[in-house]
Amino acid sequence: MKKKEKRMIAIIVIVGIIIVGGLLIWRNATNKSEPKQGENQVTEKYVDVLEDGTKLNKSNKLKEIKKVDGLEIGNIQLTYQNGMAVILGDVKNTTSNDIGLTVIELTLYDEKNNVIDKIEGFVSPVKAGETVQLNMGVSADYANAYDFKVVKK
Questions:
Q1: For position 22, what pLDDT does the model report?
Q2: How far from 86 is each of 27, 74, 100, 138, 149, CA to CA, in Å?
Q3: Which in 7, 65, 116, 133 has the greatest CB count within 10 A?
């Protein structure tokens, strides 16, 4: 083989190695950014992600009953989907009197007792001994909340 032929073969081999190496690097980078099927994609400790992408809070602290001025508020269910968090819960009137429309402030906490946010909402009028549903919506992702407190405004 002549010197020119050897040089040409060496160049072809080097270019081939570069192309193959580049393809392998690109393939690995692409595979790392896409989660594998069956891989847990949830990084939030108190969140389950449903099939439709809805985040559902699973903290037992949100189920606990909090009392404020004759109202028991608990069984909070917190979901997040399409840019909207929905907070549902039970509000029971434990007094012997009817309670009219009530403004409350719900404070959400993370696991380290740091305030995530304070949200104002309304409790529908509730008759003595009866229960109504709390329904609040906010345009923020609070799905990973751990606990809550409530005060009457």
A1: 72
A2: 40, 15, 23, 7, 17
A3: 116
44 to 61, 71, 87, 107, 127: CA distances (angstroms): 16, 31, 18, 19, 38
Whole-number Å distance between alpha carbons of 132 and 124: 7
- Whole-angstrom distance, CA of residue 108 vs CA of residue 145: 6
CATH 2.40.128 for domain 47-152, yes or no, is no
Residues with pLDDT less than 50, the chain: 32-42
Q: Looking at residue 1, what is its pLDDT?
A: 67
Residues pairing with 84 in the sheet? 81
